[in-house]
């Protein structure tokens, strides 16, 4: 009975969320993101709709580590914020409904999405097939979207990871061990393409994630 009740609650919240999103015309935001090559503002839009519908709260991502933002990034985010807020206003949402949607809230959420979102790649085949290609670079066209998974966001990085996050025929994230893992050993994933050389990895991690990697592989300059 509890399981059935939970399922009904999830379905109800999902229905309300989609109904909320359908009330606005998102064509301007979608076109802006397409021409600018942006994807994360669409995740903020989705979260905002979830908050308005009651399926989430404004503090949902507060627990996650934010990215360090440059002044140039913040200026671009301010334009995105104005576009998002005006879309809600044009759709007839009240000031009370979007009271949470301040410029600072938008910037704070986007800063967390930037370094905590996962690119979803729907993988087909067996776990063994995925294990063989886990460390390989994946073409951008292979991704079907981006999403935030709270628990996996807490995994630390290693350029020689012992686990890999994957998706098999759904957007439910699963973990696959890449080697034997000792009892008490920390589980670590690779935030980037592990096949890149040392200098390329360091540059991307420093610029995109704000840290200098000191994993065993990087310390050996491999």
TrEMBL record:
Which Gene3D superfamilies does this UniProt record tie to the protein? Answer: SET domain
PROSITE patterns, A to Z: SET
Domain named SET: residues: 40-192
Superkingdom of origin: Eukaryota
Matches recorded under InterPro entries: H3K4_H4K5_MeTrfase, SET_dom, SET_dom_sf
One GO CC term of this entry? Answer: nucleus
- From which residue to which does any coiled coil extend? none
Its recorded name reads Histone-lysine N-methyltransferase ATXR4 isoform X3
State the organism named in the record: Nicotiana sylvestris (Wood tobacco)
Q: Which gene encodes it?
A: LOC104217332
């Amino acid at each position: 009975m509890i399981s059935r009740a939970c399922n009904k609650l999830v379905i109800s919240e999902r229905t309300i969320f989609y109904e909320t999103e359908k009330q606005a015309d998102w064509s301007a935001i979608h076109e802006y993101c397409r021409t600018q090559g942006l994807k994360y503002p669409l995740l903020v839009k989705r979260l905002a709709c979830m908050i308005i519908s009651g399926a989430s709260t404004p503090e949902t991502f507060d627990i996650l580590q934010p990215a360090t933002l440059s002044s140039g990034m913040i200026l671009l985010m301010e334009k995105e914020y104005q576009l998002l807020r005006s879309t809600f206003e044009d759709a007839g949402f009240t000031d009370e409904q979007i009271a949470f949607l301040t410029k600072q809230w938008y910037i704070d959420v986007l800063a967390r999405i930037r370094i905590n979102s996962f690119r979803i790649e729907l993988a087909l085949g067996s776990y063994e097939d995925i294990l063989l290609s886990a460390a390989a670079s994946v073409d951008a066209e292979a991704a079907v979207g981006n999403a935030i998974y709270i628990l996996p966001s807490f995994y630390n990085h290693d350029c020689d990871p012992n686990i890999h996050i994957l998706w098999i025929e759904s957007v439910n994230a699963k973990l696959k061990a890449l080697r034997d893992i000792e009892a008490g050993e920390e589980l670590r994933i690779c935030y980037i393409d592990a096949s890149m050389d040392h200098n390329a990895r360091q540059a991307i991690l420093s610029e995109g994630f704000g840290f200098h990697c000191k994993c065993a592989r990087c310390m050996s300059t491999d």
